[in-house]
Amino acid sequence: MIGCGRALDCIVSIKPLIFSCMAMIHTVVVVVDLVHDLIVIALFVTRVIMGMFDSVWVECACDKKVEFQTKSGPCVLHDYNVNQGDDIPEGIGDSLDGTVRECECGRIITLTFIPPAIKGYFMVKIEEA
């Protein structure tokens, strides 16, 4: 068993080590906070300057994916995949209703939004080139 005097000597001898570790932990926390702030600023600048959007993806009959971009949603670069059954929020669906895109293969793809009361999906019409 260690006596009080000896235990106190141990604590006093590791005190600089404890303070050193605490200083390193504080430095790491400050750096993490700084990185977080930089990421938040970068996202804000990207959204304001570059213009962020959300995407609805449709797979064509040729297996290529066709993108329909919208700024009607939260605009956080979210991807919705119609062929995988993703629910499309009403605002995004409304904004893309009737939108037409051409696939690389030449097929014409038209989106028709089915309101959320019927599950919030798109009916996809793919026309041959």
Considering the chains and any ligands shown, give keywords for the structure.
23% strand; 3-stranded antiparallel beta sheet; 3-stranded mixed beta sheet; alpha+beta; 2 domains; single chain
Distance between termini?
88 Å
Radius of gyration: 28 Å
The helix content, as a percent range, equals 40-55%
Beta-strand content: 15-25%
Judged by helices, strands and strand pairing, the structural class is alpha+beta
In total, the number of strands is 6
How many separate helices?
Answer: 2
Query: How many separate structural domains?
Result: 2
Give the low-pLDDT segments.
Answer: none
Order of helices and strands: HEEEHEEE
Mean pLDDT: 74
Largest sheet: 3 strands, mixed
Q: Strand order of the main beta sheet, please?
A: 2-1-3
The geometry reads as: rod-shaped
